[in-house]
């Protein structure tokens, strides 16, 4: 058992290396090999599950280690309390790889080949991680390939889950290669051949799609939008004495963007350090900037609204035109513990870390905004960029551009802003749209419909980014229209495999791995 746990821990660490800050995407192609070997070694199901748990423990401890820093610095938690909460969260997330290992062990023992069992089981559980308990699809395996532009093009059909499926399948191929070097069995040769064939097909598809979305096809008629990155430190962001500095910073950046040809400027999430609709009306400085510069702006700000004699707060994005607030989007998918405290009726611990007076309320409608001289667009606020379904809803509703506004200042100079950036870029690729990203401390960026990062501002820097896109871009894809057909098909396959396997006789797992 000791060797199995060492193998599992090694695999988890390898998987973490495939994400930022290391970005060793190829490591994901090997990370599951030690885990699969460990599962094969353990005949008892609880032990096989333990292998998956330790794999997940190693991965999430390394990949999400920035959470402790966020809780200590900005959540004002003590180091001990933050560590306990973080480890508890990691243990909960590690139950998913544990279930993966359990399913694999059951399927292997019932005669299901590893080439089918492993990709199907992992993809299904990763898909469910997107939704269970409000969802936390941070760093799904497919995101590890973000820098391989040709390979990731399959996401316009399958979403990121298709990439996860492919990566697990390539791990099985790597395991088959090891088997061939040892005993040259026909089963291993077939697994390797199938894996190579599927990889080749994915790369061929990606090459074709990249040619179809070549920049040469973009319209010569363009419009320019400016992204503003104020780099306002999180620890002074809400200090009343710093309000004037925030507004003057964004006015200066907006003027620079205007001088460089922008006809529309985008501020980050909660870049207006005042609750709009509240008693403090200094938020009007933002509308005055729009009036003064004669330029429409998208601004992020908390919003206060009285509903049935009760005040509710929203994390919102406002379109400002001619000095007036003309359109609004209220964030739909809130961050648990950040923007609201779950189960507050049981544990009255106060509002979430990022909330001000009290917990935010969730919006209900994905708004499509229209501003003169720019394509119709929808806003994804911060965390919403990691949920594919919200982007699909926006594009299906008529958005031709996605705008992600965020405040990653909570994460400081850690891996989190880069991880967040990579996931946001997939939303552009999945829906074949342009995506503008405005982040308070970075990384602000522009992604084209191929999912390619075409412009960005460095982390922890101040500046403006002006970028031109087609005035009337195309938008939409198979994934936009049909959603997670691939993921649901895989999930259905796992259900059928599991049910039929449990009815069949037990066989040696060595024949299948």
The named CATH superfamily of the largest domain:
Carbon-nitrogen hydrolase
Instruction: Give the integer mean of the pLDDT values.
Output: 91
Main β-sheet, spatial strand arrangement: 5-4-3-2-1-12
The CATH class of the largest domain, by name, is Alpha Beta
How many distinct beta strands?
Answer: 12
In the CATH hierarchy, the third-tier topology of the largest domain is known as Nitrilase/N-carbamoyl-D-aminoacid amidohydrolase
Question: What is the number of helices?
Answer: 15
Which value, in Å, is the CA radius of gyration?
24 Å
3D shape? globular
Distance between the termini: 19 Å
CATH architecture of the largest domain: 4-Layer Sandwich
Order of helices and strands: HHHHHHHHHEHEHEEEEEHEHEEEEHH
| Helical content band | 40-55%
- Biggest sheet layout: 6 strands, mixed
Pairing-aware structural class of the strands and helices? alpha/beta
Strand content: 15-25%
| Low-confidence runs | none
Q: What's the structural domain tally?
A: 2
């Amino acid at each position: 058992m000791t060797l199995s746990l060492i193998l599992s821990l090694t695999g988890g660490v390898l998987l973490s290396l495939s994400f930022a800050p290391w970005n060793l995407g190829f490591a994901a192609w090997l990370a599951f090999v030690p885990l699969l070997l460990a599962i094969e070694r353990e005949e008892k199901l609880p032990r096989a599950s333990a292998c998956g748990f330790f794999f997940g423990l190693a991965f999430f401890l390394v990949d999400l280690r920035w959470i402790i820093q966020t809780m200590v610095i900005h959540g004002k938690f003590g180091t001990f309390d933050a560590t306990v909460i973080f480890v508890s969260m990691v243990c909960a997330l590690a139950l998913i790889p544990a279930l993966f290992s359990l399913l694999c062990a059951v399927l292997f023992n019932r005669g299901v080949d590893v080439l089918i069992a492993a990709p199907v089981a992992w993809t299904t559980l990763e898909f469910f991680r997107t939704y269970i308990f409000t969802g936390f699809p941070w760093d799904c395996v497919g995101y590890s390939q973000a820098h391989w532009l040709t390979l990731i093009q399959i996401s316009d059909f399958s979403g990121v889950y298709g990439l996860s499926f492919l990566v697990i399948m390539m791990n099985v191929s790597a395991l088959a290669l090891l088997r061939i070097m040892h005993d040259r069995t026909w089963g291993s040769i077939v697994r390797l051949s199938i894996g190579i064939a599927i990889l080749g097909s994915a790369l061929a598809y990606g090459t074709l799609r990249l040619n179809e979305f070549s920049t040469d096809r973009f319209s010569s008629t363009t419009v320019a939008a400016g992204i503003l990155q104020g780099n306002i430190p999180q620890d002074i962001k809400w200090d009343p004495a710093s309000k004037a500095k925030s507004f003057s910073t964004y006015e200066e950046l907006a003027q620079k963007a205007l001088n460089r040809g922008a006809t529309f400027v985008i501020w980050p999430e909660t870049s207006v350090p005042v609750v709009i609709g509240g008693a403090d009306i200094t938020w009007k400085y933002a509308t005055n900037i729009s009036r003064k510069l004669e330029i429409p702006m998208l601004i992020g700000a908390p919003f206060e609204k009285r509903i049935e004699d009760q005040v509710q707060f929203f994390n919102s994005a406002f379109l400002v035109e001619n000095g007036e607030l003309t359109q609004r989007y209220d964030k739909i998918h809130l961050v648990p513990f950040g923007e609201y405290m779950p189960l507050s009726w049981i544990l009255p611990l106060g509002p979430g870390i990022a909330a001000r007076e009290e917990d935010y309320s969730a919006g209900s409608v994905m708004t499509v905004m229209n501003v003169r001289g720019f394509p119709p667009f929808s806003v994804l606020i911060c965390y919403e960029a990691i949920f594919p379904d919200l982007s699909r809803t926006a594009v299906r509703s008529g958005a031709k551009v996605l705008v992600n506004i965020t405040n990653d200042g909570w994460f400081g100079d850690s891996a989190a802003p880069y991880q967040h950036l990579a996931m946001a870029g997939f939303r552009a690729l999945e829906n074949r749209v342009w995506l503008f990203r405005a982040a308070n401390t970075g990384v602000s960026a522009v992604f084209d419909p191929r999912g390619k990062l075409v412009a960005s501002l460095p982390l922890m820097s101040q500046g403006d980014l002006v970028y031109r896109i087609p005035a009337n871009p195309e938008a939409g894809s198979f994934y936009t229209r049909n959603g997670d057909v691939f993921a649901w098909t895989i999930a259905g396959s796992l259900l059928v495999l599991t049910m039929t396997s449990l009815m069949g006789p037990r066989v040696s797992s060595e024949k299948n791995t």
